[in-house]
Design a protein that fits this description.
By secondary structure, the chain is mainly alpha-helical. Helix content is 80%, strand content 0%. It has 17 helices and no strands. Helix 4 packs antiparallel against helix 5. The chain is elongated, with a radius of gyration of 31 Å.
Length: 396
């Protein structure tokens, strides 16, 4: 009994929130009321357990705030590790908070993979998200489950873009389709539209890598579905981005099917994009859209008589080059110079081998060769043929 008194006395030296339970237990023991003393100690144990949970919650919150700062400083791996540690601290008593922290953990790994080309980080993000899905099931938390499926699709799509084949992209499509089982238009229209857009991108990438038109047609359907909810007034840049995605899918589809109507729809989608994706607001995206518009107009010009489409294509490429500069984005600059050369060559030929236009085309081709780009070999071949023709005309 004396040893028990001494041990309880030690408890009185603990946190002030618990000392009163120890004091009460000691008083009850002195009175010989052991049952009541046991109850007092049990109450103290419960209070200590609550304090432990509270302390763990605070520790997790401090870690999460540290992780946010790491993320702001682009230290994404450090941030991911802290979110994971924070999630472990609350695992036993707060599953909702753990889910949020584990999603943050995966998000930081995704950012590391996306921004630094770190494929191992993307694989870790995929593994983390799949782990979350085993805990937060569709039956228990359907919307959280759908959000995680969408995030999983994003990580798989990003990795799939960098790999050959379509296996990861097809996994991404499956994840997006799963998300849409709970992200319905009636229930969460914005999330439904966002996931439709993501699904469209994955399907388009598969369509680019595979023959046929099925995936591209499904991609266009998904983008059009997203546009049914992405209101231009409410989310102008998301609306514009989806219009752009639709334009890309339609342009590729039009080539596969030799369908001029689809190509004209692609041109209209790119023009719609430029209504919100302006040079002042997003200069590089504006330039990218101008180039894509130029590409579609040049192909349209090849299918139609007259020079109007070629002239518009040249204007679009010149616009793109005001932001796609050699110093800023050399590969994009070179690619656009090559495309400009193509449009000027088409226009010059349409106008009866107009040497002034063909000389401009040669200038653009030469410019593009300043950068070792995907088009370099093709450009050299076209330029050699063009220079030989100009030399014959005495216009070189």
């Amino acid at each position: 009994m004396l040893r028990l008194r001494d041990e309880i006395a030690q408890l009185r030296l603990g946190p002030v929130e618990l000392a009163s339970f120890a004091q009460r237990a000691q008083t009850l023991i002195d009175r010989g009321d052991l049952d009541a003393a046991r109850n007092a100690l049990a109450e103290g144990r419960a209070a200590a357990h609550q304090l432990r949970e509270q302390s763990s919650r605070y520790e997790a919150d401090f870690l999460a705030r540290e992780a946010e700062i790491d993320g702001l400083q682009l230290a994404y791996r450090a941030a991911a590790a802290k979110y994971s540690e924070a999630a472990a601290l609350v695992a036993g008593f707060d599953p909702e908070k753990r889910w949020q922290l584990m999603n943050n953990h995966a998000s930081e790994l995704y950012r590391q993979g996306d921004e630094f080309g770190d494929n191992d980080a993307l694989l870790q993000a995929i593994a983390a998200l799949r782990g979350v899905l085993t805990e937060n099931t569709r039956e228990r938390v359907p919307l959280d489950w759908a959000m995680t499926q969408n995030n999983l699709g994003n990580a798989l799509q990003k990795l799939g873009e960098r790999e050959i084949g379509t296996a990861r992209l097809e996994e991404a499509v499956a994840a997006y389709r799963a998300a849409l089982e709970e992200y319905t238009r009636e229930r969460v229209p914005f999330d439904w539209a966002m996931t439709q857009n993501n699904l469209g991108n994955a399907l388009r990438l598969i369509g680019e890598r595979k023959s046929g038109t099925t995936h591209l047609e499904e991609a266009a359907t998904a983008f059009r579905a997203a546009l049914a909810e992405f209101n231009r007034e409410w989310v102008p840049l998301r609306w514009a981005g989806t219009q752009y995605n639709l334009g890309i899918a339609l342009a590729i589809l039009s080539e596969r099917k030799s369908d001029t109507v689809l190509l004209k729809e692609a041109v209209e989608a790119f023009r719609a994009t430029l209504a919100e994706r302006t040079r002042e607001r997003v200069p590089l995206q504006w330039a990218e859209t101008q180039r894509s518009l130029g590409n579609a107009l040049r192909i349209l010009g090849q299918r139609e008589t007259g020079a109007a489409c070629f002239l518009e294509a040249v204007a679009a490429y010149h616009s793109a080059l005001t932001e796609f500069t050699l110093e800023r984005v050399p590969v994009d600059w070179a690619m656009t110079q090559h495309n400009l050369g193509n449009a000027l060559l088409n226009l010059g030929e349409r106008r009866g081998s107009d040497t002034a236009l063909l000389q401009e085309a040669a200038v653009a081709y030469r410019a593009s060769l300043l950068v070792d780009s995907y088009f370099s070999d093709r450009t050299r071949a076209v330029l050699a043929h063009l220079e030989a023709f100009l030399a014959q005309r005495g216009a070189l």
